[in-house]
Amino acid sequence: MIYGLHISTAGDLVGTPKRARDMGAEVMQIFAGSPRTWRPSVYDDAQTAAFRQACREAGIQRTFIHMIYLVSYGTPDDALRGKSITALSQMLATADQLGAAGVVTHLGSHKGLGLEQALQRLAAALQEALEASSNSWLILENSAGAGGNIGNCLEELAMIIEAMDHHPRLKVCLDTAHLLASGYEIRSAGGMDRLITDFERLIGLDRLSALHLNDSKADLGAKVDRHENIGDGYIGRDGFKVIINHPKLKDVPGMLEVPGLDGKGPDAANLQRLKDLTN
Prior knowledge:
The protein is α/β, with parallel strands linked by helices. It has helices spanning 16-22, 45-58, 78-98, 115-130, 154-163, 176-181, 189-202, 236-244, 268-277, and strands spanning 2-6, 27-30, 62-66, 102-105, 137-141, 170-175, 208-213, 215-216, 227-228, 253-256.
C-alpha cells in the first residue's frame, strides 16, 4: 500500500508537499479552503505551477482534495442542492488546476426523501458538476451507516455509479472506520476477502482510488463516525495488519484522517504504526 495522510495547507499551499513528505507520506489529501464554509480558495497560475513543482520535488505521487462537509446532492432542498453542485464544480476545476487526482466527497443525506427518490437528483447533480472539469476524478466516499445518509454500503455506491451510466471519472474511496461502523467486519482475513470480492462484483477494483485508514472509536455496526489513532480503536493493530497487507490493495493509496497522538491531526507517528504493520 502507498501511505499518506490528510494535511493542512496552513496558508502555505506550495510548502505542503514537503511537509507531508517530511512526515513520511508518499500521497496526501488536502482541503482547498475551509471545509465548513461555501467559500473556496482561488489559486492563480503561479501558485498552481509552483504547487505541481513542489509535489514533484517532494516525491508526492498523488494528491487528493477533500470536499467541504456542507454538501448534499440528493436533498429535496433545492437551494442546498444548487449550492452543493456549484461547490463541487469549483472543487473539481481546482483539482484540474492543481494536478490533483480527484475530489473525495461525502454524499450527504436524502433528508427523509428515501434513497430511491433521491438517487436521480443526486446522479444528475454529480453529472452536472463533472462537466466543469476535464481530468480529475469524482471520488465517492462510503459513510458510517447513520440513517438518512447516502453511501452506507457498497450496494448504494454501485447504484449511484449505475445511475450515472458508469461515468469513467467516477471512483470510490473506502474509509475503514466507516466500514466497521456500518457493519463490515474488516478485521479478519475472511471479512476483508468478502469485502474485496463484493467490491469487485458490484463496482470493480479499477474504481477503488484510495482508502482512508482510520481506526474507529465505534465498534462493528454502531453506525457512528468517530475516528481514532491507528491501533487505539476497535479495528486495532491486528485488524490493520489484515487490511493493509491484503494483496489486492498493494498499489492503492491509503491516507490517514486520525486525531494524531498530540490531537493536532494525522502525524508521522501514526504513519510509522502503519509501516510497522506492513509485511
